[in-house]
Design a protein that fits this description.
By secondary structure, this protein is of the alpha+beta class. The protein contains 10 helices and 4 strands. The chain folds into 2 domains: about 180 residues, no CATH class; about 80 residues, 2-Layer Sandwich (Alpha-Beta Plaits). Helices cover about 75% and strands about 10% of the residues. A 4-stranded antiparallel beta sheet has the order 2-3-1-4.
């Protein structure tokens, strides 16, 4: 009943934007004051955060490049489909084109294959023993086996082949890279939250009496919590800024590797890494602060 009454009263109170700006300004000053109060420990926290974020960024950026290499290598894989004699090539091609994940089909008539073979080798004048062939290109290595199994059921198909071992290895590499990236994210989250948690705990202890006075005066809980949460977010943001310096060298090195192998770099790779790194570091910093407040500060 009291909550409903309070909410109804608040709805009819006109908003004073100037007052709200003053509150935000005051909260900003409190956050800055807490950061200054922490002193030289800030340097240790920010450099540690930067090291953690640099490792994460380098792993994430490398993962994007490895995935690109795997995709490019996988795109070169093709399924060779050998047809039975007197089979309708166009009909088989149309059936395969309807399958999902099929990107391209190249038709090689047996007369063309036989002509090329006769030009390369000295062969007796015999009837063409080669079958009509279709080279089927699939969009990604993990989809090759399902497409292979589906094409195998077509009655006009006599035999099929593809580099199965290579496709399996490419798929394994992609799986390992994704797993490592997730593990690094988990470690980064754990370390970031632990560091922020311990730091905010020290700040809370140094301001214990001041916080008690604010609570007795009826100050809003969020007014007390907000500066601590912002301080954690600040450490994440500043650590990310510092981590950008070594990450530029990682980016340039990977770009040169892509140029050497003539494989295009992942589109917007560096921007994606920075966006994810900044977002996660700020989020984890704020979450670490919030958990610490919930544990050590009963507001």
């Amino acid at each position: 009943m009291n909550r409903n009454l309070k909410s109804n009263v608040k709805k009819h109170i006109p908003k004073d934007w100037l007052c709200e700006l003053r509150i935000l300004y005051r909260l900003g000053k409190e956050t800055l004051s807490d950061i200054i109060r922490t002193g030289w420990v800030n340097v240790v926290i920010i450099t540690t955060m930067a090291a953690i974020l640099m490792i994460f960024g380098a792993c994430f950026r490398s993962a994007l490049s490895i995935s690109t290499f795997s995709k490019e290598l996988g795109s070169a894989l093709e399924i060779s489909v050998y047809l039975k004699n007197s089979s309708d090539i166009k009909s088989v091609k149309n059936d395969i084109e309807k399958l999902q994940h099929v990107e391209k089909i190249t038709v090689i008539p047996k007369a063309e294959s036989w002509g090329k073979l006769k030009n390369e080798m000295s062969l007796p004048n015999i009837e063409n023993p080669l079958p009509d062939t279709l080279h089927v290109k699939v969009d990604s290595p993990e989809n090759i086996q399902p497409i292979f199994d589906h094409i195998k059921t077509i009655p006009a198909v006599e035999d099929m082949s593809y580099a199965k071992d290579l496709a399996s290895k490419i798929e394994l590499v992609n799986h390992v890279v994704k797993t490592i990236t997730l593990v690094v994210i988990g470690i980064m989250a754990l370390l970031t939250i632990t560091i922020i948690n311990n730091t905010i705990q020290l700040v809370i202890q140094s301001r214990k009496e001041e916080i008690e006075i604010m609570r007795l005066m009826g100050v809003s809980n969020w007014y007390i919590r907000f500066p601590f949460i912002m301080q954690g977010a600040f450490y994440g943001f500043t650590g990310s800024l510092l981590a950008m310096i070594p990450l530029n060298y990682v980016q340039n090195g990977l770009a040169n590797i892509h140029k050497f192998f003539m494989i295009p770099s992942p589109p917007n790779a560096q921007g994606t890494v920075l966006l994810v790194m900044f977002s996660m570091s700020i989020l984890f910093g704020a979450v670490g602060s919030f958990w610490c407040i919930k544990k050590h500060l009963q507001v």
